[in-house]
Write a structure and sequence with these properties.
Layout lengths: L38 H9 L4 E4 L14 E4 L7
Antiparallel strand pairs: 1-2
């Protein structure tokens, strides 16, 4: 997946099949316990301005992590 961070937004967020109940959160009150496993490992780094490639392997039904979440810092991303 790709994650994009923005400080300006216009419009309304909407539900999709992939995200049923989207919501806005202040960075200081992100409910990490409700996010996917491993998100608490990389999301704070991204929110602090770091760019990186994250690798996480999930077990069946994404209910467990296989190994550790890896964060590889990068200066920029290659264009596809």
């Amino acid at each position: 997946m790709h994650v994009y961070i923005t400080s300006v937004w216009s419009g309304e967020i909407i539900s999709t099949d992939e995200m049923k109940y989207p919501a806005w959160y202040d960075q200081r009150s992100i409910p990490f316990e409700r996010l996917m496993l491993g998100d608490k490992e990389w999301l704070p780094r991204v929110l602090s301005g770091e760019k990186g490639i994250v690798r996480a392997e999930f077990g069946p039904h994404q209910q467990s992590l296989v190994g550790e979440v890896r964060f590889e810092p990068v200066d920029s991303f290659e264009e596809e």
